[in-house]
């Protein structure tokens, strides 16, 4: 499968992936990245908010999708990740499209006004239910809520879930029950929630 994505071998992307492997830093992989870009392009996304960005790997894909007039908001609690993200995204030629906010992701989201074409969630899993509650009314009709790790290495189907798994299960159930959204879990890597707002 990886061989089908070789045309995305941008030196900046390769460096971001190498750093993640060397430091065991959690990023979405190349397949998920291309999926995020494809979904964003499919709805003509121009305004994206990431709840949890690390050093900008997923934002790289969203920034490609939104084009030169779009904007991608990044959030992370570590100011060092802001520096790294701006460095990488600057070298990739998309830094003018990004706005980085250091601090709690959900709090930062509440401080930015307006609707979004996409809200993407990849924060600490215990925060997933609050992330959905914050995002669900601020995505435009025809927009997407996307969330990584919703299968949690299969733990979501095991008995006696721990607290983290319970939070993911609550998150997934709330989305599935919201009649304003059409949702599906794409079983790529660790599961990507894709919820399209219908009304």
Describe the protein.
With 199 residues, the chain is α/β, with parallel strands linked by helices. It has a single domain, classed as Rossmann fold, CATH 3.40.50. It has seven helices and seven strands, in the order ααβαβαβαβαβαββ. The chain has a seven-stranded mixed sheet with strand order 3-2-1-4-5-7-6, with helices on both faces. Strand 6 (181-186) and strand 7 form a beta hairpin. Helix 2 (30-42) runs parallel beside helix 3 (57-66), helix 5 (105-111) runs parallel beside helix 6 and helix 6 (128-135) runs parallel beside helix 7. The protein is globular, with a radius of gyration of 16 Å.
Task: Describe the secondary structure blueprint for this structure.
Layout: H1 11-23, H2 30-42, E1 47-51, H3 57-66, E2 71-76, H4 79-91, E3 98-102, H5 105-111, E4 116-121, H6 128-135, E5 139-148, H7 163-177, E6 181-186, E7 192-197
Parallel strand pairs: 1-2, 1-4, 2-3, 4-5
Antiparallel strand pairs: 5-7, 6-7
**Gross CATH architecture:** 3-Layer(aba) Sandwich
Q: How many H/I helices?
A: 7
Helicity level, as a percent range?
Answer: 25-40%
Number of strands: 7
Tell me the CATH topology: Rossmann fold
Q: Radius of gyration over alpha carbons?
A: 16 Å
Name of the CATH class: Alpha Beta
The biggest sheet, with number of strands, parallel, antiparallel or mixed sense and barrel status, is: 7 strands, mixed
Average predicted confidence as pLDDT: 94
CATH superfamily: Vaccinia Virus protein VP39
Order of helices and strands: HHEHEHEHEHEHEE
Task: Kindly name the structural category.
Answer: alpha/beta
What's the overall geometry?
globular
How many distinct domains? 1
Beta-strand portion reads 15-25%
Question: Ranges with pLDDT <50 over ≥5 residues?
Answer: none
* Measured distance between first and last alpha carbons: 36 Å
Strands ordered across the widest β-sheet = 3-2-1-4-5-7-6
């Amino acid at each position: 499968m990886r061989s089908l994505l070789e045309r995305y071998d941008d030196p900046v992307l390769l460096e971001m992936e190498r750093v993640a492997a060397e430091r065991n830093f959690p990023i979405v992989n190349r397949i998920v990245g291309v999926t995020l870009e494809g979904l964003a392009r499919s709805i003509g996304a121009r305004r994206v908010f990431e709840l949890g960005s690390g050093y900008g790997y997923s934002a790289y894909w969203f920034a490609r999708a939104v084009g030169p007039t779009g904007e991608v908001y990044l959030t992370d609690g570590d100011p060092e990740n802001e520096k790294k993200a701006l460095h990488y995204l600057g070298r990739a030629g998309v830094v003018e499209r990004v706005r980085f906010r250091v601090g709690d992701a959900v709090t930062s989201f509440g401080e930015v006004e307006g609707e979004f074409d996409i809200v993407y969630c990849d924060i600490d899993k215990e925060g997933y239910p609050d992330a959905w509650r914050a995002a669900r009314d601020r995505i435009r009709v025809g927009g997407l809520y996307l969330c990584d790790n919703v299968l949690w290495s299969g733990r979501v189907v095991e008995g006696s879930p721990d607290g983290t798994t319970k939070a993911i299960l609550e998150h997934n159930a709330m989305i599935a029950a919201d009649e304003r959204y059409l949702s599906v879990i794409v079983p790529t890597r660790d599961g990507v929630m894709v919820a399209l707002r219908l009304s």
